[in-house]
Model the fold of this input.
Amino acid sequence: MIRIAGLTKRYGQLTALDDLSLEVPRGTLFGFLGPNGAGKTTTIKLITGLLRPTAGDAFIGPHSIQSQPLEAKALFGYVADVPFLYDKLTAREFLEFMGALYRVPEAAARARADKLLKLLELDGAADALIEAYSHGMRQKTALAGALLHDPPVLILDEPTSGLDPASSRRIKQLLRGLVARGRTVFFSTQVLEVAEKLCDRIAILDHGKLVAHGTLDELRAAAPGARSLEEAFVALTRGGEDRIIEEFLEETVEPLDLGALDPLP
Amino acid sequence: MTTPRLIAWRLRLALAGLRGKGGRRRVFQILVTTWVAAMFLLGSSLWFRTVAREPELSAFAPVAVFGALHAAFLLSLFRDMGAAIGHLFLAPDVPLLLSMPLRARPLVLLRALEAVSDAFSFPATLLVPILWGYGIAVDAPWIYYLAVPAAMLCLLCLTVGLGFLVALALAPVVPVGRVRSWIRGISAAIYLSIWMGLAWWNITGARHPESPPTGLGRVTEVWAAHGPIAWTPSAWAARLLLELADRQTIAAPLLVLAGMIVMVAALLALAAARYPESWQKAQELARKAIERRAPPRPAREATGARPHPPPGARPTRRFGAGLALGLAFLRRDRRLIARDTALMWDMALLVFMSTVLPLLAAPALARHVSWIVLPALLFFATELGFDLASRALPLERRALPWVLRAPIAPIALCAARMASVWMLGAPLVAGLAVLATLAVGADGVAALVTAACGLGVFTALVPIGFAAGAFFGQPDWRHPRQMLNLGGRMLLAALLVVMSVAIAITYAERGGRLEDARALLAAWSVPAALAVLLLDGFAIWATATRLRRFQWLN
Done:
């Protein structure tokens, strides 16, 4: 459903993404992992057409995001890492606006918006201005906006960041349910537990390069000795991490004499 | 989504701005704007009527109409280029809209309409009432009053259209932030040249119409009559309005203006198709600029030597210790201001524009030459002191908690911030005072007295501005002008009015004799210094209390 073919992005000397090729089949929940600055958000921006690749292309369904951007964009819903919402609209009005942008018939958009608001526990605040929302409520509103036109593909950049455990669980269940009904979800996250429990396939990116991808078992096999995704992730992206921490503690942190602590003057 | 629905949604969003947080303030702003427009209408109709009655001056009325439209067009041209960059490339909802299946041309049209409606607030408040005042004075037909806003809209369509064309052409080639700062620089330069022109006009007495213009004045006159200025859109708009007011046929200017708009619209329609690509390229350029500025990453290698343990954090609660922190804030502020050219230009502009009023009044004060410098300097010191100090806290934006989390007591923090502001602005005031006084031929003593007066006013305004920043500051500003809310700006306006009245009363009482004023200053210097100290203490206490409550960040 999503095909990434040799996607490369360079900024002068810096290569943010280096010849990435991936396929995400229909009905897959695909986790995209990587340390900070690995190129996850750049990849998502390239797939959604917000950035132009230096080389390669991305396809949503049969449509190239480069040559048929409107057709490709109609097939996905997208939630950015810091989603923009209009502060002076209510969540209900925002969803109405999203429905209009995607040409969802008005009555259908209204009915679906009501259901999404209820599902994401926003129905109590649906008519309050977004400026009064917490971070989690904003995140959920953005997700509702991306789901409003029932897209076959969902592209989510850190969708569970800032959510309380109950909301996070609900969204995870929702994503699984969508995938079970043939939708494709491509999402980036820093929370390895989420990826471990949720994803059918996982890709790990580091310094703009794809270092591993496959099922959880395949990733563990790629990092010998790794028992969990976290261990596999660290082994594949940051060798020698423990030694660096030990060196820092040894060189810079003196053992603390609790008796020598004075109260503030 | 169809274009009309998109536009209808944008209108709905604009109206939604009147709701919720800040909504009442916007309604109040609209009321204040209406009041200001009414005052301009009253003032201009009286002025034009007076000018029209005097046979010697009646020729100046149409010249004033031409001048007002030329100035508005020139200023709008550069301001709208900056606005175009903002609307097309920096608005926060651009990624949202571009990730949707929307065609480029309706999006650009939507952005252009937003830009025109934003830009219209300036002429709606100032220029339309002025031109209506002309209509009232010359007894223009009713259609003239409809034609004035229409003509303004035509001019704005042209400036916005040209701004969009320039933005679409430049953004893929030059980082948009840099283009914006160039445009701000050019706008500020235009404002400053108008300021200098006004100063020259008034101080040299060049405004007297009986003497024929020479040099640059002559060139301007010839250009305005027959040269390129006569072919500018503002000249055609002025012709249209004057001929309409005079009940003549307006076919020629109407056709020329319509032709210009059609041409710009056609060019924009061609350029708009490539908007998404331009946006993508602009993103790349911005990222490249950041990469270039970033220092090279240090290699990860352990050194054999055991480093000295860093000193522990020391809590600072005392007022005096806070003053020592002032230097640290000064260094950081200088970096922040120097790296944000938008902020620097905005402040320079506000500060210099504040001296326009006293310079306009210069001929009346010209009995003693120092009286021309002193009022302008006092306004300069007031505006600079208030502006620098009131922006000290909003400058931190959302990073203020970082400062508040440090082991510094709020009282020490306030003292440090005020000290840093004083150190930043005082050399400017003193330097300008000495330069300006010596430039008008006064002696060294006069220069010192002027500098002392300027510094005194500046010192008094720092605590007032600082407290105003804590109470009226807006940490979520995007444009430097938004760092203070309406209340803060009204406070400054009130201070400037008080200062104008004080200067006028002092001048009337002393009859323009500076020697008397010097004696007065000497007598009042000690009580004034004590009052400033008290004011400092009060401002620090009030601001520290405010910061302790943390309400300002809510």
Chain A is about 40% helix and 25% strand. The radius of gyration of chain A is 21 Å. Chain A touches chain B through 40 residues (CB under 8 Å). Residues 165-180 of chain A form the longest helix (16 residues).
